[in-house]
């Protein structure tokens, strides 16, 4: 993971002074866990979870809000402020800051959408089939969220049919054992020694 973090730090800024790294993939594919580990390897880089930007009424129609609240301030080198959505209370909460750190990670379904790609330093895709991802997600969220998942599946399929992310991914991330395998994505290469494997220590490598 530290090798990957080093590579990402060396990228040129993409959103004002910020290197904006997107972690996309199907719901339940492990984006949040991976993004958290990556952020720690990046020296506790800020992480923006798109679950905080989306809402029941706007599962995927949140681009304008993200651009206004987060992307535009970061391009000016300013601290952004977004209003996180409370999925239980069904309302937006008080603003939270996103500082213009050297690297900012944005994770969630749709993080690699076409409207955001011009601002990304790199797009990472969690390489797990949607059937497996959704099975994991349903198991994680339990019976309480069954109705939500029934609606989500169709919305996600439609989103990726209209605005796919994977074809534009620079890197593909596969979970394996206690670590991650990082492969060249459809849109980029990672050098002559591909694939390479990332882990927190030798025991975490596949």
Describe the protein in words.
- By secondary structure, the chain is an alpha/beta fold.
- The longest helix is centred in the C-terminal third of the chain and has 17 residues, at 146-162.
- A seven-stranded mixed sheet has the order 2-7-1-8-9-10-11, with helices on one face. It has a two-stranded antiparallel sheet with strand order 3-6. Strands 4-5 form a two-stranded antiparallel ribbon.
- The radius of gyration is 16 Å and the shape is globular.
- The protein has five helices and eleven strands.
- The two termini are 13 Å apart.
- It has helices at residues 2-9, 31-41, 63-75, 130-141, 146-162, and strands at residues 19-24, 47-49, 80-82, 85-86, 91-92, 96-98, 103-107, 122-126, 171-176, 179-184, 196-198.
Keywords:
single chain, 206 residues, alpha/beta, two-stranded antiparallel ribbon
Shape estimate: globular
SSE pattern, N- to C-terminal: HEHEHEEEEEEHHEEE
Major sheet: size, sense and barrel closure?
7 strands, mixed
Tell me the total number of β-strands: 11
CA radius of gyration: 16 Å
On the 0 to 100 scale, the average pLDDT is: 87
β-strand amount:
15-25%
Low-confidence stretches: 189-206
Number of helices: 5
- Please give the order of strands in the largest beta sheet: 2-7-1-8-9-10-11
Helicity, in percent? 25-40%
Spatial gap, N to C terminus: 13 Å
What class, by secondary structure content? Answer: alpha/beta
